Automatic annotation (TrEMBL), chains A, B, C, D:
Signal peptide: none annotated. Residues 398-416 have a biased composition (Basic and acidic residues). Residues 133-230 form the Acyl-CoA oxidase/dehydrogenase middle domain. Residues 33-129 form the Acyl-CoA dehydrogenase/oxidase N-terminal domain. InterPro entries: Acyl-CoA_dehydrogenase (IPR050741), Acyl-CoA_Oxase/DH_mid-dom (IPR006091), Acyl-CoA_Oxase/DH_mid-dom_sf (IPR046373), AcylCo_DH-like_C (IPR036250), AcylCo_DH/oxidase_C (IPR009075), AcylCoA_DH/ox_N (IPR013786), AcylCoA_DH/ox_N_sf (IPR037069), AcylCoA_DH/oxidase_NM_dom_sf (IPR009100). The lineage of its organism: Bacteria, Pseudomonadati, Pseudomonadota, Alphaproteobacteria, Rhodobacterales. Homodimer. It comes from the Bacteria. GO terms for molecular function: acyl-CoA dehydrogenase activity; flavin adenine dinucleotide binding. This is Acyl-CoA dehydrogenase family protein. Keywords: FAD, Flavoprotein, Oxidoreductase. Gene3D superfamilies: Acyl-CoA dehydrogenase/oxidase, N-terminal domain, Butyryl-CoA Dehydrogenase, subunit A, domain 2, Butyryl-CoA Dehydrogenase, subunit A, domain 3.
């Protein structure tokens, strides 16, 4: 953490403690009691807006966003430290206007949006008046290979006409969500990485139909939701195109890195919470004359969880630092490393915490199964583990090929056929 | 499979194919559409009763139950083969009157019930007119140590007065469930394994309050349900005691083994289904120019799943055989081995199938997350994995101590300190 | 075990106990003291020959070999039970003339040898007068793909002229080893599986040069040895060809199955020994006031080892049975399953036993590191784990494709897109 | 790495490249050819002394040792970066006089030695004229619990009389090794952590008998060796006691931390080497028409190895930093974390590299099996993994107990029993 940003970190911590923690219980209780799961109680929004105003007053609003003119802003490393704090209360990010997927959408609009796009969508997003979504994954194709994206957009009479289906559109269930960025195939005849584009589509546009929420291990995550949406002859003006036709993948580079740092730091926060719950339960229950924590392999389980949590934290900080120093493109291997390691390992730690809890651990009486479901989805989000492993390995193999020194050392060993002095 | 029971197996297979499979789609569709999740549509019951009648007509009704007088019946090994078939359609067991926990309850009533208890509860259970539940686990104690069971029952004026809470009472949400067997502590001053008793409590008895369903990874499993029940001054006649005061653990021996065989065989069926879904998905989607099944480690994942499925099946059949040959008590190590190995490994296989599916794999579009939730609960049911591992290890260590031959062989090796001819 | 062969099993057990166990200590002590590690002390051979004669007298000699005329012999299943006994004393097999690779070589000669070949090599092998080797793996190629075998044999003037290198030729260090079967490429222009042939080469033939033993984790396994041999213009008569040119792979089918059953049964015997050593050590040492066996995860480690040992044993017996019932070809998937599972898992169990032993566990004072080295080699022998996993998975995928029933069931599930009743 | 020490790091790198790498091949070749494995060829020592002199000339000699008067020296963090370089050539440390166990012994003598002890032993050690050993582990007791150390030393007539056995005394096979520090039990009636003392014993003292080398997976590691030594009435002057009677454990605190940093950094270097060998082999062999690196799970294996290598490196650097900032005592949890994680994981990576190599990977043609053996011993050295896991978990549980904040957060969750709105 740079010295210069420590005051910001402390202000965020203070804000969460004073303005967010105190409203959380009432907020969630009201939410649980809503008859229509896809709506908010007016008092919920009142609580939220109150905390948002306090953040604005304290100068904490939109700190995630680099200065529009100078490009200056928080380093990823400093942001990582702040993200760790944000991860401790699920409401915190929203009160500071830095929730996913809004942050990514705002960054994209800031960098490649036209003045009109900024006026219409970025302004209310920055003001915290609306929410947004990002529609990428499609139900009918292996989205692990982004080139597979096939939902069609055709230019007709100055309008893009969209047809197809997207699913797992997170946040699209929120009644405040007003705008989507949709990844579509506009140019099937271009070279593979130039076929897709990103287009702005208002949520309430004719032809946009929310078919329902995707469940995750039985959770619908209402009212946020991971929605399944059908687009039928959705016609938007040509000017809703972001940056330009065929720029879909280029735009994605903008949003990938920082969001993953943020996600991974929150995942680590979840692992720490699971570890605390494991210890609490292990200390408070007795079986066969001993505290559960002292039975069998439980102490080793705690130790291994602790070691991995610290390892993951260091790796995420390193990735953040790499982004600051090397830029998003060069740092992508570090980002893939945390993306491939963190959610899988956090799932394991949560699962072990469940096991220590007995049947309560997988029930609604414990947050663990919800935490597990959430972390399990991250093993697909922004590319499944397998894709990241492949990216990392390909880079490692290439680096090996490019390094004469490494090759020399390795080859020296592989040719070492001693005669071993057999039979005289 | 014994030659003598092959006709029975074939009749069961035929029954499922002809009488159960054809009604399944309509049955589940009606269930999904019920407004009150804890009820049945009349047509659902009509379909069920139709299939039950066909099973009665075909002489397949209650085949699980040994002859009351001679004790003769299906061997566990033969039952295991039949259970594997029952596992393929979740409705099948019910149409043959051999669902859990009814089978265990009926066995217990058959063996230790009084004539009055049999008349009142066993008769309608055997006739398939009512369902039943078994209340053992308590929310406030580590139930891994069954001696911890503490819900109190006190004898007052010829009545047992029950006070306390139980949870995860499977099947207690079903409107047809009329009777519970409840494990309670009646004799706190007796020696450890003589303090608990089992008492019959009608579901609709005054003082019995269903507080709600326990969720499993967000699933409530309605209308079956895993219910949380509070008992407040529940007074039942002294004659509702099963077998006798302090016999709680002795009764449990009756029900443990065969049910676990049945459960494990069904778990293996779930693993096979997960493997099929994994292959189906892997063959039907393409990424990076290849079928998903041919990418990365997926073929090895399939192979390892297949190997473990066959290993588990053989181990379960061996355990069933051990029960037949050695009796429940001597075979308990084999039963613990399958209980400790099967659900954990099946969870892993289902998880791998999910990963091959992408985000669809954890959604309501795939049965995998529900299958996972169900198998995950089995790692606690009838004792968590850890307790079974401890039982197995303790037995193995004791067997070692008792075997002079094994000790001699091991000691011979541990004393082998060669001089190694150092320095001349 | 069939009833008919139980007397044979009992006779083998009696033979080991009475004739092999008593000579083992002296035999190994003399071997350790040999100055030339690649030789035998005369007394060693005397002891061996004595035990061999007793086996002949008891009618136990060559029981592994099917009747030359009727093809009748031990079933693989019965052989598996006997192999488990043979695995308990490393000298046992030799005293019964059923050591690897002699058994495979004798089977091959018996089935495809010419009368002259039988007279010259099979006869002394059956008599236990000489030993033999099988040369397949080559140092310069990935032998996991057997089609890679490239050591050349060219027919010149009625002689095969062999040039190239082979390594890991087990048993070729034994001074009694007189004959090798060598897999060579004779027909580079034939279709892929018709290019290789097997040729008989006497050990003492001009041009055959033993370059030295291959070490395994530092062990040279003298005087048996896994030798590295160079062939320089080795000329053998055309009649040394086995069966016919291009039949190399066909011949291999003969030897693969039963040997793997035997190997895997012995591996399981090693796992049992490791488990016994783990318990013995765990009971005999104390740390932090407790027996080591009672510390941390050690009891669970014992339980998991026990469960896997029993699972592996059942799987190997199943594979043996499959060979008996289905034939070697159809049973090859079962054989691949044991080959892929057993050595890897046995390595893990031995490693855990080492860890319980502390530093003694990896030293020469314990047999564990030698056992580990031996099992670790089996993860390559007759094809590395990865090749077997691929074979299994390919077969499973094909079986899925061929089964309409499995496909129907899987597809039904993958199309289940519920509408989930969102927003009315 | 601090700016101030970067020149030192660069000088070390230059020294290794210019003075150590060029002599390594000749040095090892001569060593392999020595008839007496426990000796050096004169030319070997000449080569070594030449490189040592160059290090002295360059001011790199003894940089590991803090200033005797000011206590100032390299931070552990800076040392960690240097250790990573030292790990790349097994001769490097010796040419800079910073080999284990000499460094630890010198540190101990520097801090607690008497002027006479320093004159006699520290001086020649600092000058690189002799080598030393540290005798702690005993064959007859579980050394995981250091309080078990039981080799006796009794004070008689101004002399300590030592009787007992020690094993795994690394470096005691080297003919240049002249002095041992021996941990003994001097005060059996003191409180548990005050019973042991450390005493200086010259290697050539009457009564000291080297029984032979302990092998590690068949390797004797000559001429360094891990020796088994018997002490029979070894009488040394009272003044050979280090620091004072009963100070055995206190002295050990001095040596533990930095050595482990050094060891773990070298282990990571081994993992990197294994990864390079894995890639080299994977690129240079072909099977089934593909480079091995592209088959099955191999790319994912490479990725996972890479991720873990980076995670381990960061964790070791963090532990070094913790030692600098918090001191050895407070940092001990971080040191236990690297000790418990690194060697186990490095063993796995080396094993995977072996598997990619085929049978060559476990033979003397590859360094992998020797590397594996070495890393496997580290899972016992300075306490087995299990002891470190226990230390970490106990500390984590205690930290939890001490933190009201963590407890409050955890308890809040564990009491969250929602009513779930069942049945109206």
């Amino acid at each position: 953490m740079s010295e210069g940003n420590k005051p910001l970190l402390n202000a965020v911590i203070k804000h969460i403690r004073e303005n967010v923690d105190p409203i959380s219980e009432e907020y969630h209780r009201l939410g649980d009691a809503q008859e229509d799961r896809w709506s908010y109680h007016p008092r919920q929004l009142e609580l939220l807006e109150g905390a948002k105003q306090k953040a604005r007053d304290a100068g904490l609003w939109n700190f995630f966003l680099p200065n529009a003119e100078t490009g200056e802003g928080l380093s990823n490393l400093d942001y990582a430290y702040i993200a760790a704090e944000l991860g401790k209360n699920p409401l915190a990010s929203q009160t500071l206007n830095c929730s996913a997927p809004d942050t990514g959408n705002m960054e994209v609009l800031e960098r490649v949006g036209t003045p009109e796009q900024k006026e219409k969508w970025l302004k209310p997003l920055l003001a915290g008046e609306i929410r947004s979504a990002f529609a990428m994954t499609e139900p009918d194709r292996a989205s692990s290979d982004a080139k597979n994206i096939a939902m069609s957009a055709v230019l007709e009479n100055g309008e893009w006409v969209l047809n197809g289906e997207k699913y797992y559109i997170s946040g699209a269930g929120d009644p405040r969500c007003k705008i989507m960025i949709v990844m579509v195939k506009t140019s099937p005849d271009a070279e593979p990485f130039r076929q897709q584009s990103q287009i702005l589509v208002p949520m309430d546009h004719p032809g946009v139909e929310i078919l329902g929420p995707m469940h995750v291990f039985g959770h619908d995550d209402a009212p946020h939701g991971h929605m399944h949406i059908k687009f039928t002859n959705v016609r938007v003006p040509e000017t809703n195109m972001l940056w330009g036709e065929g720029k879909g993948f280029e735009i994605s580079q903008v949003r990938l890195g920082p969001g993953r740092i943020h996600h991974c730091m929150r995942s680590i926060g979840q692992a720490e919470k699971a570890l605390d719950l494991m210890i609490e339960r292990g200390l408070s229950r007795v079986a066969f004359g001993k505290k559960i924590v002292d039975l069998g392999k439980n102490m080793e389980t705690i130790s291994r969880a602790k070691i991995e949590i610290e390892s993951m934290r260091l790796l995420v900080l390193k990735a953040a630092k790499a982004m600051d120093v090397l830029g998003n493109k060069e740092a992508r291997i570090w980002v893939s490393m945390i993306k491939a390691k963190v959610p899988e390992q956090v799932c394991d730690i949560i699962d072990q915490a469940m096991q220590v809890h007995g049947a309560t651990g997988i029930s609604q009486w414990s947050p663990l199964s919800g935490m597990y479901a959430q972390q399990r989805t991250l093993r697909y989000a922004d590319g499944p583990d397998e894709v990241h492993h492949h990216v990392i390995a390909r880079h490692e193999v290439q680096t090996y090929k490019d390094s004469n020194e490494r090759q020399d050392a390795a080859k020296q060993h592989t040719e070492n056929r001693g005669s071993a002095g057999f039979m005289g």
